Amino acid sequence: MARLVTTQLLLLLAWVIAWGAQPTASRARTELLDVCMDAKHHKEKPSPEDKLHEQCSPWKKKACCSTNTSQEAHKDISYLYRFNWDHCGKMEPACKRHFIQDTCLYECSPNLGPWIQQVDQSWRKERVLDVPLCKEDCQRWWEDCRTSHTCKSNWHKGWNWTSGFNQCPVGAACHPFHFYFPTPAALCEEIWSHSYKASNYSRGSGRCIQMWFDPAQGNPNEEVARFYAEAMSEAALHRAWPLLPSLVPLLLFLLS
Ligand SMILES: *[C@@H]1O[C@H](CO)[C@@H](O)[C@H](O)[C@H]1NC(C)=O
Ligand SMILES: *[C@@H]1O[C@H](CO)[C@@H](O)[C@H](O)[C@H]1NC(C)=O
Ligand SMILES: *[C@@H]1O[C@H](CO)[C@@H](O)[C@H](O)[C@H]1NC(C)=O
């Protein structure tokens, strides 16, 4: 009898810990490192891609994007999303290169696992939320886009797609970027519905994701993903402990 009770208790304990260790209710992911999100163009798993195009080439040792995706990432109204950067006149090249880099990071990075969330969208099953973007990367993006124009602050929704690419909806006037994005954080956070969070950590700190990096020194985002993956699983374990007192009545019942 005592042995049966012990077995039951152990099973229960295992269940409680497993339950508490789930990062969030909406995320079924257990692997946070070296993963690709389940989205429109991502490969299933990261692997080497020696022909990645220009700005995407830093990811060639380990990438979630194919060569084709990396080439398309550099085009206007590409087959990836038919997105028109020039919706308020021509986007300046100095600005556009940040959008290309943002696309490369999104499509190619195998280090975004800690921020992947499941979503109910027709075009993807997973997205990233609150990726801590290094402050210099966000600042530079904002500065280089000051002279370009746009008509919206959330570029995920609300466009007129009737012609096959996004156009400004009626009533959304074109203004310089800073009208819709008064600060660097407003740009990085709002443009893709909080895919990024503006971090106050700096490039090289190991605590924020770099959109730009020199692959000669390796990919700095590997360490960042490891750091946050560990922090998240520790937080999850701590969430399991408060559940233990609720086991006491059960324990008493089983022993009675
Ligand atoms: C990438 O693949 C798509 C779909 O197969 C194709 O339409 C497109 O032309 C390709 N792009 C390049 C640059 O090869
Ligand atoms: C959408 O764009 C098309 C073509 O440019 C235009 O004819 C139509 O009026 C626009 N519709 C809305 C709701 O903005
Ligand atoms: C970032 O900001 C938070 C609060 O705004 C502060 O507690 C933290 O020390 C800052 N970190 C760095 C690296 O500046």
UniProtKB/TrEMBL annotation:
GO-annotated molecular function: signaling receptor activity
Which taxonomic lineage is given here?
A: Eukaryota, Metazoa, Chordata, Craniata, Vertebrata
Please state the span of the N-terminal signal peptide per the UniProt entry. Answer: 1-20
One GO term (biological process): sperm-egg recognition
Name of the coding gene: FOLR1
Q: Which UniProt keywords apply?
A: Disulfide bond, Signal
Identify one Gene Ontology CC term for this UniProt entry. external side of plasma membrane
Protein's name according to its UniProt entry: Folate receptor gamma
Name the InterPro entries for this protein. Answer: Folate_rcpt, Folate_rcpt-like
Indicate the segments forming the Folate receptor-like domain, all copies. 35-210
Q: Pfam families per the record?
A: Folate_rec
**Family stated for the protein in its record:** Belongs to the folate receptor family.
Origin species, per record, is Oryctolagus cuniculus (Rabbit)
